[in-house]
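Example record

The entry below shows one chain as it appears in the dataset: sequence first, then C-alpha cells.
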Amino acid sequence: VSIETAKSGFLGIAGVAIIYLALIWLGATSLHQFKLAANGGITLAQISHHYLGTAGDAILATLATITCMTSAMGLVIAFSQDFHRRFPKISYRTFLRINCGLSFLFANLGLDQIIAWSTPILMFLYPLAITLIILGLLSPIFKHDRLVYQITTALTLIPAFFDMLNALPANLHDSQLLQTLLGFAQQYFPFFSLGFGWLTFGIAGLILGLICHVLKVRKRLGLLSE
C-alpha cells in the first residue's frame, strides 16, 4: 500500500510540476505582448484571449469554474466536518451555511483585495507550517517530545509575526510604528529581506529544544537510578 501511495504521490507531484512550469513559461513569455498584470487571473485571461479569442475566454471560464468548484466543495466540507466534530452542539449544516456565506462575501471583494489581505496571513502561517513539518519528520529522534515542538514554534512565531507585518498592503506601510518594527527586523533578523527571517529562529529553536530534551531525559534517568 505504501509503495502504491508513493507512486501515486510521485505522479501527482510530477503532474502539478508540469502544469506550474507551463504557467511560469506562459507568464514569462506573455510580457512580450502584455504589461505586467496585477494578478495571475488577469494574465491568464489575456493569454487565452490572445491565442484563442472568444473560445479561449469560454474555455478558461469553464476550467476555472470546474477546478475552483471542486476545491471549494472539498474545503467547505472539510471545514464544516472538523468544526462540527470540535463543536458538536452546532450542526454540520449550520457550519456549511456559515462557510458558504463567508466565502460568498469574501469572493465579492475581488481577487486583488483577497490576495492583498490573505498574503499577510499566509506569510505568518508558512514558517509555522514548514517548521512543524520538519519537526514531524525529525520527531523519532526526540521521541515526539512536545517540549521540542513548543520551543521551536515559540521562537518561529517571532519572525513569522514580522513577516506578516512586512506583507501588509502598501497603504499601511506609511505607519511610523510599522516602519520602526520592520526596520528592526531588517537590521537584526538574518535573511529577513529574502523572506527567510524565520530560518535562523527555527534552527535555534530546534537546537534549544533538543538540548532541553536531552537534559530532561538525563534528569529522568538520574532519578530512576537513585
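Notes for this example: Residues 2-111 form one domain. The chain has a mean pLDDT of 89.
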